[in-house]
Fold each of these.
Amino acid sequence: MKPSTLLIQQLEQREAVIGIVGLGYVGLPLMLRFSEVGYRVLGFDIDPLKVDALNAGRTYIEHISAEAIGKARSQGFSATADFSRAGECDALILCVPTPLNKHREPDLSYVVATTDAIVPTLRAGQLVSLESTTWPGTTEEVLRPRLESSGLRVGEELFLVFSPEREDPGNPTFSTRSIPKVLGGVTPICTRVGEALYGQVIDQVVTLSSTRAAEMTKLLENIHRAVNIGLVNELKIVCERMDIDIHEVIRAAATKPFGFTPYYPGPGLGGHCIPIDPFYLTWKAREYGLNTRFIELAGEVNANMPAWVVGRVADALNARGKAVNGSRILVLGIAYKKNVDDRRESPSMELMALLREKGAEISYSDPHVPHFLPMRKYSFNLESVPLTPATLQDTDCVLLATDHDRFDYALIKAHAPLIVDTRGRYQEPAPQIVRA
Ligand SMILES: NC(=O)c1ccc[n+]([C@@H]2O[C@H](COP(=O)([O-])OP(=O)(O)OC[C@H]3O[C@@H](n4cnc5c(N)ncnc54)[C@H](O)[C@@H]3O)[C@@H](O)[C@H]2O)c1
């Protein structure tokens, strides 16, 4: 039997062993889904703390329960840092980080390290799927030659696809299963094998003609968001100068039943994807002598938002006879978006750093982030402050950066002397509320 026929059969009969490499925000939900339908899943991660936690049935992501991990464990899931075991897997799904380096260029070191780690274990009849967001051409130009250095040919003995993750952490409406999955294979047979893998766990698999088209699809989705958020952030500044409430305008425009999609302004752009991924295309487009002006412009507008918000805080304090220097400023919400615990690229970090630089005394409150664990760029020796009438009254300014549903907005309004609202959470004007 041909390796592809055998592998498709093993996948369809759920006898295949699934390897998930990178057990983070993307890898963990995927592991749970494959376990749930009856596959044996082996998880790989270089972080021994994560491996130990999972093997002990513990979780490290707020919206994934320990109960779900425990259930997967009882269905045969285990985690390891030993990459020599990759040979046990029939399908290997790579979900490792793809950040930017300090020159804002793609950093594929995690993808390359992972690929190099599995090459010695490759055997005929395996599928490799890259899920990490990246520039068009990565799967063909970076992964394929490395995998083929094993002597196995892609499309004959080995199968290679790109299938980007689509996730909306904290959104209960969609699950891994119900979010359609885009997939492109290096060859048509690679695509068929990829469909056999994902078709077992995802309701709709959308196949494309190539890995490059699939890579570009993911970038289009994220660029679309970055550019539209940049647009509303720019309009927010214009509206502010004209004394118009941008949120009122967006609510009204959103009543149009066609041709308009609402995007909401904020204190900047956060998360692991939207502020970063568009620049993967910017970098690759340069190879073709092209500039991606929309991406650069949106990046510039969004990156300047924290400084604009700090200006609004300074003006609001000034109007009350106070300076930023020496003021007690309580930042509400340090996760990058509401109802999640993820602080990656969160604009709150930049807001806190800018305000501290100007001499403010910073504290924060975030029910999803009880301790401020140091990050690559930011470090604050702080714990989340409980929101009480006394803690609110004891501030000069409350800066609403991330509007978690768990905040008591009536309590905040009743006791904070000044609220700078970057999310349009307070719709009714009040003397102590300033829009930013
Ligand atoms: N978080 C999201 O909502 C989201 C959505 C869509 C796409 N993505 C993309 O998915 C990819 C992964 O993102 P994430 O949010 O899951 O990141 P993450 O940081 O939560 O998880 C990545 C995991 O990979 C591990 N890791 C790093 N190097 C490794 C290696 N060489 N071998 C094995 N494991 C390794 C890390 O320890 C970590 O546990 C990125 O390309 C990201 O852009 C993320």
Amino acid sequence: MNKNSEYILGINQTELERLEFQHSVWKKVTDNFFDRIKIQKGWKCLDVGAGPGLVTADLRQRIGDTGEVTALEPSELYLSNFKEKCKINNWTNVKFLLGNMEDMNLEKEHYDFIFLRWVIDFVPSPENFLLKLLPSLKKGGVIAIQDYVYEGIFLYPKGGAFDNIDIAVRAYWRIGEGDPHFPVKIPKFFKNNNIELTEYTPVGLAGDSESNVIEWAHKFFMTHIQLMADKKVISQIEADAFLEDWLKHRDNPDTIFFSPPMVEVSGVKL
Ligand SMILES: C[S@@+](CC[C@H](N)C(=O)[O-])C[C@H]1O[C@@H](n2cnc3c(N)ncnc32)[C@H](O)[C@@H]1O
């Protein structure tokens, strides 16, 4: 990562716990994606921006003892949390790479599968990021990405401040030099870089005021709306209005929350 840009979501225990809850809500979506990709026993996999290794652990189960999975992650807190989990469970087919992907010297044509969930939208120069990554994928290997196109999020009943939350979140991504629309650029990137697009599917989740989907969004907005104001992405007045509208909806049994679409993209290296 560019030394001057920041990873906007931050690294701390609260964020780690949010990532764990988030994984419990979206796990079935990622599992279905992996089913369609048909991940094989014995594959060598790389989980880029693995966080505390939640998907890495799921991949480990799929590839079995003859396979190998590597968690690449710049946060020492997240990686050591995952290392500890691997030690307790005596998982021996897991490798760890600490650092930003941009600073890694990855082995050429080593991996059968490279995966990125909720990473590519945050990094500056995502095309360069992928260009650095691709030589480590074997010919015939699969690269798969899950990330948002940050549009379409909404809260019913409409009419309050939250109707404009997508504008604020996109601006938040951009102060870290991320691109909240990057998945729309991936098909062209694949075409230009010898990757055959095999899937491009948007998926969304929705739920009422008692659902785990709204609880997942709650954990994000309760922390990050104030951080958006602290970082001057929005004013304090806007932050207060977003939170007031959100909390009003949380108490309303008629509320339905729709997540932004997450795009599932996969391609094979020719
Ligand atoms: C929103 S979290 C997602 C974690 C995990 N992929 C998941 O699905 O739970 C994004 C992760 O990307 C990592 N990250 C940020 N910049 C990165 C970079 N330049 N190279 C590799 N990982 C990065 C962060 O440290 C963080 O753990």
